[in-house]
Amino acid sequence: MTPHHQEESRCESCPIRERAVCATCDSDELQQLEAIKYYRTYEARQPIMWRGDRMEFVASVVSGTATVEHLTEDGRKQTLGLLLPSDFIGRPGRDTALYDVAAVTEVTLCCFRRKQFEELVQTTPHVSQRLLEMALDELDAVRDWMFLLGRKTAREKIASFLMMYYRRTVTPEQQFGAATVDLSLTREAMADYLGLTLETVSRQFSKLKSDGVIKLEGKRKVIIPDVHALAREAGDDSIIA
Amino acid sequence: MTPHHQEESRCESCPIRERAVCATCDSDELQQLEAIKYYRTYEARQPIMWRGDRMEFVASVVSGTATVEHLTEDGRKQTLGLLLPSDFIGRPGRDTALYDVAAVTEVTLCCFRRKQFEELVQTTPHVSQRLLEMALDELDAVRDWMFLLGRKTAREKIASFLMMYYRRTVTPEQQFGAATVDLSLTREAMADYLGLTLETVSRQFSKLKSDGVIKLEGKRKVIIPDVHALAREAGDDSIIA
DNA sequence: CGCTTCATTGACGACGTTCAAGACATGTGG
DNA sequence: CCACATGTCTTGAACGTCGTCAATGAAGCG
After folding, report:
1. Are the C-beta atoms of B111 and B59 separated by less than 8 Å?
2. pTM, whole model, 2 decimals?
3. Are residues A104 and A125 in the same domain?
4. What is the CATH number of the domain that holds A53?
5. Whether the Cβ atoms of residue B155 and residue B229 lie closer than 8 Å to each other
6. Residue B184: CB less than 7 A from any atom in strand C
7. How far apart are CA A122 and CA A137, in angstroms?
8. What is the span of the domain harbouring residue B236?
9. Looking at the 3D structure of chain A, how many domains does it have?
10. How far apart are CA A103 and CA A50, in angstroms?
11. Residue A161 CA to C16 C1' — how many Å?
C-alpha cells in the first residue's frame, strides 16, 4: 500500500545515468546529488502526486511507467505526458503540483527533496543546463502531441502512439526483423492520452489489425511487421530539409 | 516585403524589460546582451521562420503577435503557441527550426545571433535560469492547451481562448466594468489554434453572443459583460487546494 | 466600382461518442 | 471442479458534434 524506501545504490551503476537530469554531471556534482537522493517505489495504479499537493520532492523515473494527467470534476481525463525511465518529475521553483502523476506499472523513482534540489540548480550549472535541455526537449515533444490532439484522425493517433512507444522503448539493438511492442497501457489509458474513448481505440486496433498493419498477441503485445508502413499511417511528414 | 532593421534603442526603456528572457539580468549582463542584439520588424502575415531552416537567431517579441505552427503537406494546420510581447522565439542548442513561426500582426523582434546567445547562456547564469523558468512556464501552458485540444467542446474551446487572451493582453488596471478584448487573430487563426474549423469558430461566436455571454463589436472586438460567466463556460475547474 | 479578405449561415454527412451487450482471462471461494 | 465476480477488451447500433461544401454578406482598398 504505502510506498517503501529502498536501500541506497550507487549512481555509477544507475541504469538511467546517461539520460537523466544527472547525465552531464561530473563525479563531484554526482556526489552532491547522491547525498540528497533516496529511492521510492509505487505499485501499479498508485498516485504519485495530486494536483494541488505540496511538492516535497522532484524525481527521476528509474524504472516503470507513469503518466502526468489532468482530470476535471465532471470526469474528463487527459493524459499530458508519458513518463518513462530517465524522465523527470516535478518542477523546481513551484510549490504545489499543477497536475496529477500516477504510476501505470510499478514505478521506482530516484527522489530529491525539492528545496535541496533547488539549491543545487542554483549552484551547479550542469544540473540547470541539463534541466533546461530536458525541458526544451519535452516542449518539442508536447508540441508534436498538440498537433496529434488537434488535427489527427483516430487511426493516425493510434499509429502515432505506437510509433512513439516503439521509438521510446525499443532500443536500436532490438530493432531487427518484425518489431514487437509490449504496451504497458490499457486501452483506456491510451484513449486518455490520445483524446479518444477506449471504444474508439479498440476499434482502431481491430481495424489496423485487419488491414495487416499490426498483429496482436494477447491484449497488450503488438507486432509491427513493417515499421515504415505503420509510420506512414501516423501521417507525419518528416523534416527532409 | 523584406524585414527592415531598426536603429538601436536602450534596454533600460524597453517595454518588455521586466518579463522577457533578460528580466533577471543585472546591468552588466544587460550590457552583454545589448552588444549582440538587433531589432527586426515583420509585416503582418510574413513568415519569421520556416521549419527546417537554419536558425540564425533567437529573439524576444517586443511588439505584435506571432504564432508557432505546424503544417502538413495535406494542408492541415495546428497552431502550437501564441507569441505575445516578451515571449521567446527559438531554441538555443538546436540548429534547425522544428516549427514555423509567422507574424500575425506587424511584429518587432529583439534578435540575438544564436551562436553568441548560446555562449551567453553558458556564461551568465541569470540568462539560463530565466530561460529555464520561461521554458517550464511554457510547458505548463502547453499542457493546459493539451487538455483543451483533447477534451473540451467547441464552445468551451472558444470560451477558454477568450479567457486566455483576456488574461494575457488586458492589464489589471484596465479591468474595470465590462471587459473588452481586441483580437488580433482571424476566425481561421483561432480555429487553427483550437483544433477546429473556422466555420465552427464562427458558429460558436454567434452562439455565445445570442446566449448573452459575449457581445461583438465589429469583427474582432469582443465585449465580455461578465468575466466570471465566461470563465464558467470555459469548463476549467480551478485549483482550490 | 470590382477585387480581395474575412465572416456568417445553411444543408448534409462523417467520424467519433455513447450506451449496451457480450467475450475472454484471471482470481476467489464453495 | 465449478460458480461467480472482476477487470479488460471487443463489437454493435443509435446518436450528435463538428467538418465539409456552398452561398451570401460585409468591410477595406486600389
Report:
1. yes
2. 0.94
3. yes
4. 2.60.120.10
5. no
6. no
7. 21
8. 153-240
9. 2
10. 12
11. 18
* Domain end residue (candidates: B145, B175, B208): B145
How do strand A107-113 and strand A57-63 relate by DSSP bridges?
A: antiparallel
The last residue of a domain, from among B145, B169, B195: B145
**C-alpha grid cell, residue A32:** 552532491
Q: Does A7 touch chain B (CB under 8 A)?
A: no
Is residue B95 within 8 angstroms of chain A, CB to CB?
A: no
Contacts of A149 in chain B (CB under 8 A): 146, 149-150, 195
Same domain, B160 and B131: no
Question: Do A141 and A157 reside in the same domain of the chain?
Answer: no
Kindly give the confidence (pLDDT) of every residue in chain A, 241 residues in length, as a single tens digit, with 9 standing for 90 and above: 444 444 557 898 999 999 999 999 999 999 999 999 999 999 999 999 999 999 999 999 999 999 999 999 999 999 999 999 999 999 999 999 999 999 999 999 999 999 999 999 988 888 988 999 999 999 999 999 999 999 999 999 999 999 999 999 987 777 666 789 999 999 999 999 999 999 999 999 999 999 999 999 988 999 999 999 999 999 998 765 4
Q: What does the alpha-carbon distance between residue A193 and residue A68 come to, in Å, rounded to a whole number?
A: 10
Q: Which nucleotides of C are covered by protein (CB under 7 A)?
A: 6-11, 15-20
Q: Is there a single domain that holds both residue A208 and residue A136?
A: no
Q: Could you write out the DSSP letters of every residue in chain B?
A: ---EEPPP--GGG-TTTTTSTTTT--HHHHHHHHHHEEEEEE-TT-EEE-TTSB--EEEEEEES-EEEEEE-TTS-EEEEEEE-TT-EES-TT-SB-SSEEEESS-EEEEEEEHHHHHHHHHH-HHHHHHHHHHHHHHHHHHHHHHHHHHH--HHHHHHHHHHHHHHHHS-GGG-SSSEEEE--S-HHHHHHHHTS-HHHHHHHHHHHHHTTS-EEETTTEEEES-HHHHHHHTTPPP---
Amino acid at B183: L
Q: Does B149 touch chain A (CB under 8 A)?
A: yes
Chain A residues near residue B145 by CB distance under 8 angstroms: 146
